[in-house]
Amino acid sequence: MDKTKLLDRAAKNGEERLILARVLDRLEQTRNRNIPAATDFLSPQEQASAEMLLHLAGVDGTEYVPLGGYEGAERKIFLFLPDWLDAQSAAEQSPIRCLRAKYRPEYDLSHRDILGSLMGMGITREKTGDILVGKESCDLIVLDSVADFLLQSWDQAGRAKLSVSAVGTADLSMPEESCEEVRDTVMSLRLDAVAATGFKMARGKAAALIGSGRVQVNWLDCTKPDRLLGEGDTVSARGLGKFKVAEVGGVTKKGRTSLVIKRYL
After folding, report:
1. Per-residue confidence at 265, pLDDT binned at 50, 70, 90?
2. Which residues does 229 contact at the CB level (< 8 Å), separation at least 6?
3. Considering the entire predicted model, what is its pTM?
C-alpha cells in the first residue's frame, strides 16, 4: 500500500495526517539510510494511531521502540531501529533528555504553569514529553534539539524563578499519582457496563455517551457500547477523565463479574 492510501486509512483528520506522515518519513529514513530516526513526542492517542498505521504498512514490531524517558511515561517518541540496533540498546541512541527546574515551594507551580512557560518561549508541545511536577521542582522530558536552549534560557515560570539542570533518566522524580480504586461487580465486561461504574453514571447514560463519540478505549475512538473490555484497558471520555481496568476477578453467585477500576483524579 502506498503512502497516500495508508494515510487515507489511518488518519481521522488533517492534523493527524501530518503527524502520521512524519512517522512514515522517519521510518523511511531509517530504512533508506540504516540509521536510527525518531519521531517527535506523541500523545497516547497519536501513538495508537501511529501503531495502527505501522501495522497497516506491514511494519514489524521489532523495527521500532516507544520511549518516554521512564517506564509508564504517557507521551513517547517512536525510535526506528536500523538492522544493527536492537531494542535493548535503543536507549543509547535516544534523543530524549531530562531536565529539572527547581523553584521555591511557596510558588506551588502546576502542570499548566510549566507548559505555559514553555509555550511562551516557543517550545511546541511535540518537543516535550511528560511534565512531572513536584512541590519544589519539576522534571521535564524533552528532545535534545531543545534541551540546550532550555538549560541556557529557561529561568522563569509565572512569578517563580527557576534553576534548571540536566538529570539522568534514573534520577527522575515521580510525583504521587492521584487516583482512587473502585471495586464493583458488573453484569458483563461490555464497555457501557464498565463505563457506568468508571464514570459513576447510569448504564443508559454511559451508552449514550459512547454513542456520541466522546469515548476512547486505549486512546482510540469507540462508539460501540458492546465492546468487551479486558484487564489493562484504559477508557477515557472528553470532559470526564479516564480510568483503567486494573483487575478482572471471578464471577459471583449471581453471575456478575467482579473488577477493580483505577480512576484517575
Report:
1. confident
2. 189, 190, 191, 194, 217, 235, 245
3. 0.85
pLDDT class for 174, splitting at 50, 70, 90?
confident
The domains located in the chain, with CATH, are: 3-92 (3.30.1370.160), 96-171 (3.30.70.330), 179-264 (3.10.290.10)
How far, in Å, CA of 70 to CA of 50, rounded? 20
DSSP 41-105: -B-HHHHHHHHHHHHHTT--GGGEEEE-SSTT-SSBEEEE--TT--GGGGGGG--EEEEEEE--G
Residue carrying the nine cell digits 453467585: 253
Rounded mean pLDDT of the chain? 95
Q: Which three cell numbers stand for residue 163?
A: 534553576
Please work out, in degrees rounded to the nearest 5, the angle formed at the alpha carbon of residue 58 by the alpha carbons of 54 and 59.
55
CA distance 182 to 75: 26
Give the HSE-up count for residue 82: Cα atoms under 13 Å, Cβ half-sphere: 11
Chain-centroid distance, C-alpha 258: 28
- The predicted-structure confidence for 70-111, as pLDDT tens digits, reads as follows 999 999 999 999 999 999 999 999 999 999 999 999 999 999
Quickly count: other Cβ atoms within 10 Å of residue 150's Cβ: 22
The yes-or-no verdict on residue 177 having pLDDT over 80 is no
